[in-house]
Amino acid sequence: MEITNRHILITGANRGIGKAFAKMCAQDKAHLYLSVRKTDPELVSELQTLGAKSVTVYEADLSSKKGVMALVADLNEAPIDILFNNAGQLTGGLLEEQPLDDIYQMMQVNVNALIHLTQAILPGMLKRKRGKIINNSSVTAFMHFPAASTYAASKAAVVAFTNCLQAELKTTPVTTLLLVTPGIKTRMFDEIENLYSKNFIIPMESITPAKYAEMIREAILHDLEVLEPTGLTGVGLKIAKFVKPLFDLEVSRRFKR
C-alpha cells in the first residue's frame, strides 16, 4: 500500500516509534490522525513543515474503555486507510511483585484498546475497499523471558489477534501487518533495566525509532504480513522459535530470583 495521500491513524504518536513513524509519513505527504495523551503544538508544526497534507490531533486516554470510546466518537468515521496500533505500556519483574493495577492498565492499553480501535475502524475500511491494520507486538511474544510474564502475555495476545484477523480478511482488500518489534531506543526501552535487571540480564541490542520507522515503511510499501528483526535479536528470535531448549538454557543462565 502507498503512504502518500493516505489517511493514517497512529496511537501513541507523541514519542518513540509513533512519533518517528508520524514524521516519516509526513515526509510522504500523508494525512495524519494522532492519538496522544497530551497535545504537542511543536510536533504538529514539525509534521506540517515536513509535508503532512493535514494533521488532526486527538487527546485520548487508552488506559480505560471510556477513553477509547471517546476517541472512536471523536474520529467520527474519519476515512482511515492505515491504522497503526502503536500505543503500549511496559510491566516487568517477578509476577508476585508486579502491582496488579499496573497489570490491568497495561493489558487495557496493549490489548483491549488495540482490539477496540480495530473493531471500530475496520467496517469503514471494508466499505471503502482499502485499508491496512498495523499491530505492534514484540519479540517477547516468542522470546519468553522471566520477569516479562505479563508484558509477554499481552504481546502474545496481539500476535494471536492479528493472525486470526488476517485469516478473516484474506478475501477482502484490507490487510494486516504484524510488527515483531525488537529493542527500540525509546523511553520505554530505558525502563527495561529498572523493571528487569534485579532478576534477569536482558539483551540490550537496540535500534533507533527512526530506523524502525523506515523498516515499517518498507513493509507497508511491499505489503508484508510480518516484520521481524534482523541482527542478533533476529537470531535470538529464531532460536526461541525453533531451538527452544537452547534458548531456555541461555535464559536460565541469565536469571536469578
Describe the structure.
The chain has 257 residues and is α/β, with parallel strands linked by helices. It has one domain: NAD(P)-binding Rossmann-like Domain (Rossmann fold), CATH 3.40.50. It is built from 9 helices and 7 strands. The protein has helices spanning 16-27, 41-50, 65-75, 100-128, 149-168, 187-196, 209-221, 231-242, 244-254; strands spanning 7-11, 31-36, 54-59, 82-85, 131-136, 174-179, 226-227. The chain has a 7-stranded parallel β-sheet, with helices on both faces.
The count of domains is 1
Number of helices: 9
The helix/strand order is EHEHEHEHEHEHHEHH
- Strand segment count: 7
SSE class? alpha/beta
Low-confidence stretches: none
Q: Whole-Å distance between the termini?
A: 47 Å
CATH topology heading: Rossmann fold
Taking Cα atoms only, what radius of gyration do you get, to the nearest Å?
18 Å
Look at the structure and give the mean pLDDT: 96
CATH class: Alpha Beta
State the CATH superfamily name: NAD(P)-binding Rossmann-like Domain
Strand order of the largest sheet: 3-2-1-4-5-6-7
Backbone shape: globular
CATH architecture title: 3-Layer(aba) Sandwich
Largest beta-sheet details = 7 strands, parallel
What share of the residues lie within helices? Answer: 40-55%
**Portion in strands:** 5-15%
